[in-house]
């Protein structure tokens, strides 16, 4: 059923996601602080609004895709003061679990439905409409959100109550950050031992070292021709975004009392990498730092 959707945050991810909602037959009114994003959105059939509230006014559903938790809480505070009860609010940004729960509470106090639905799949997935959504929130809110999420993605999971989507996202990306460092260390060690990249790949990809960081995002050129290592480590998934997610995982670990020693170490390693000027490279370029080449921009 065609719906009227307010879409706030039309950046690298939000822009193409909103465009896919237009393609699916929905009426989308969008807002962003950056004029160039508004122009790009207009070209995709999105009606540009003058403020977040103007984009949300009269909408059945409002979706936010913003940089961080403080932006989401700020925008949802405005929305929750103005929208009618029963409106569905979806946040697809990657934010800390605490901010996600705060946003849900703002919506609930207003009688609105709410879902945290962060994504995996990057800008390529956003354009192609193949994102994976990890959702948290009440059953009724998720049921209403699911068809829209399916218009922007391929896999949609209801992970549990408020904040569960963000929890799934940061746990998954903590696995990813740690495993990429592990795979990179193994290739760097293999090089010192005179082992060819292909030989290590052939063995590990069918043995107990097998993982996504090896078989999809292999950090050395050759064995997986589509991995960013074959393209000068152009992202892909930028190291700065990996660092953001690892730091969110650390904040959650601290708040919940979970022990995540390797997650903490991974955050430190990516922190050094970003500090050396490599935040814009794909996160698999971490292998260069592990080879002792990380300081060279
Ligand atoms: P982006 O910086 O390109 O887009 C964010 C947009 O939000 C910007 O255009 C900014 O102007 C806008 N914005 C900020 N405050 C606003 C406000 N108050 N009102 C209206 N607009 C506002 O970032 P992105 O790459 O699109 O990422 C968005 C979110 O998705 C982030 O939380 C990010 O961590 C997450 N994410 C990104 C990727 C990726 O590959 N880029 C992958 C998965 C998840």
UniProtKB/TrEMBL annotation:
Statement: the UniProt record of this protein carries the keyword Oxidoreductase: yes
Pathway: Amino-acid degradation; L-valine degradation
3-hydroxyisobutyrate dehydrogenase-like NAD-binding domain residues: 163-290
EC number(s) stated in the UniProt entry for this protein: 1.1.1.31
Domain of life assignment: Bacteria
Annotated catalytic residues: 169
Keywords from the named record: Branched-chain amino acid catabolism, NAD, Oxidoreductase
InterPro entries: 3-OH-isobutyrate_DH-rel_CS, 6-PGluconate_DH-like_C_sf, 6PGD_dom2, 6PGDH_NADP-bd, HIBADH, HIBADH-like_NADP-bd, HIBADH-related, NAD(P)-bd_dom_sf
Domain 6-phosphogluconate dehydrogenase NADP-binding: 4-160
An example Gene Ontology biological process: L-valine catabolic process
Keyword Oxidoreductase: yes
GO molecular function: 3-hydroxyisobutyrate dehydrogenase activity; NAD binding; NADP binding
Family to which the UniProt record says this protein belongs: Belongs to the HIBADH-related family.
Protein name: 3-hydroxyisobutyrate dehydrogenase
Organism the protein comes from: Methylobacterium oryzae CBMB20
